[in-house]
Specification:
- By secondary structure, the chain is of the alpha/beta class.
- It has two domains: 125 residues, Roll (Urease, subunit C, domain 1); 277 residues, Metal-dependent hydrolases (TIM Barrel, Alpha-Beta Barrel).
- It contains 16 helices and 16 strands.
- The strands form two sheets. Strands 5, 6, 7, 8, 9, 10, 11, 12 and 13 form a nine-stranded parallel sheet that branches. It has a seven-stranded mixed sheet with strand order 3-2-1-4-14-15-16.
- The protein is globular and about 65 Å long.
- The model has no long low-confidence stretch (mean pLDDT 98).
- Zinc ion binds next to strand 5.
- Guanine binds next to helix 2.
């Protein structure tokens, strides 16, 4: 019988058991901590002194003193096919889609191109410490196979789905209600819950789906209740106006999705900028979650997410990059911009809250608490090693931080891929900074 090899990691240890916006002492912090891992799962997380004494003989201790370990970051909204078009200029969402996005996504008809891009994309996620993402593929089912094949090879927990889009887009990217539905169901059967893969039913957004296609998406969501749903909502004022014209019977943009049964746990709505209070209440009540995408929203000039109103309504929140409209893969850079967006709306996001949103908050939004996003015993051992001395400036600033909040704030505001010394997935090192 093979004995289990225990691996332990000594560093500052941070994770959460609750939302710091609503619960005092929502975080666990061990300045000299130990994360104990066996069989790809967390066995224990706590103070070094206590846990070290209890390690079994043969346990290997990795010394990351001076660094900080947190659960792997979770990016709840990102488009892998848009990797090559990041930083493409356009005056707003709709021209950006027509000028860059659709021609770029056309290339994913070619499985070899899809496979090569998926590998680069996953390298990039791991380089910035992102261990789980909710990923849009393209309308081509082969783009989903390529993505899941690449993530399965690395044993990553990933959610992805085929874009459904049967109108208001170039014909070379159009499916139809019937084929899109059939292809999605085939992909669910092939990939959902295979290893660490999970499927997301992915209507691009209401303007590019007919009522028939939204109906099919809703039926799939009912037939496979533990799959995810992901789409865009209320991102841009021109888009909101367009939806009002296309769906005059709907109370609001969000209500279009609601009327097709797409507000439920495991539904992830990108952006949510132009929601009203009724929409926010429906989000909270249905346990659908918002993916807040600050770098994308600033880049396209879409608007500023209202954290205060979202919190008042009790919405599930997470942070996301939305690359290619997002301008960075790094969740640290995403926090940096989220902080400024909150300030511009007159509210305030402490660094602890931002680290929560990028870890446990996202896991809760995905109904995966206990599986990812924290160091609860039995959770999958996905974690990042952050280096407060990664750059001369970070070292200089963190050399005199006086609280955990100040340290995390410096990491969020000054950090990027260089801050990630190593990334682990299911207990295995999947990136080490050169
Ligand atoms: N709305 C519909 N499609 C997209 C997309 O690809 N990116 C963004 N940011 N918004 C969208
Ligand atoms: Zn998006």
């Amino acid at each position: 019988m093979q004995t289990t090899q225990v691996q332990a990691y000594r560093a500052g240890l941070l994770h959460f058991h609750a939302d710091p916006a609503f619960t005092p002492d929502a975080h666990h912090w061990h300045e000299d901590g130990l994360l104990v891992v066996a069989d790809g799962k967390v066995q224990a997380a706590g103070g070094y002194a206590a846990l070290h004494a209890a390690l079994p003989p043969g346990a290997v201790v990795h010394d990351y003193r001076g660094k900080l370990i947190t659960p792997g970051f979770i990016d709840t909204h990102v488009h892998y096919p848009q990797t090559d078009m990041i930083a493409s200029p356009a005056p707003g969402l709709l021209p950006w889609l027509n000028t860059y996005t659709f021609p770029t996504e056309r290339q994913f008809e070619d499985p070899a191109h899809a496979a090569a891009t998926a590998e680069f994309f996953l390298d990039e996620l791991l380089r910035v410490g992102t261990t789980t993402a909710m990923v849009y593929c393209t309308v081509h089912p082969q783009s989903v196979d390529a993505f899941f094949e690449a993530s399965e090879k690395r044993n990553l927990r990933m959610v992805a789905g085929k874009v459904l889009m049967d109108r208001h887009c170039p014909t070379f990217l159009q499916d139809c209600a019937e084929t899109g539905g059939r292809e999605s169901e085939d992909l669910i059967k092939r990939w959902h819950n295979r290893g660490r893969a999970q499927y997301a039913i992915t209507p691009r957004f209401a303007p590019t789906s007919t009522e028939a296609q939204l109906g099919v998406a809703g039926e799939l969501a009912r037939a496979y209740p533990d799959t995810y749903i992901q789409t865009h909502v209320s991102e841009n004022e021109d888009e909101v106006k367009w939806v009002r014209e296309l769906f005059p019977q709907a109370r609001s943009y969000l209500d279009v999705y609601d009327s097709y049964g797409m507000l439920r746990p495991r539904a992830m709505y990108g952006h949510c900028i132009w929601l009203d209070q009724g929409d926010r209440r429906r989000m909270a009540e249905s346990q659908a979650a918002a993916a807040v995408c600050p770098t994308s929203n600033l880049f396209l000039g879409s608007g500023l997410f209202d954290f205060e109103r979202a919190d008042q309504a009790g919405m599930l929140l997470s942070l996301a990059t939305d690359v290619g409209a997002g301008t960075a893969f790094s969740m640290l850079q995403t926090m940096n911009e989220a902080y400024k967006v909150a300030r511009l709306k007159g509210s305030y996001l402490p660094a602890l809250r931002m680290f929560y949103l990028a870890t446990l908050g996202a896991a809760r939004s995905m109904q995966l608490e206990g599986t990812i996003g924290s160091f609860a015993a039995g959770a999958e051992a996905d974690f990042v090693v952050l280096d407060p001395h990664a750059t001369p400036l970070l070292a200089r600033r963190t050399g005199h931080t006086e609280s955990l909040e100040e340290l995390l704030f410096a990491l969020a505001l000054l950090g990027d891929d260089r801050t990630v010394a190593a990334t682990y997935s299911a207990g295995r090192m999947v990136h080490r900074r050169p």
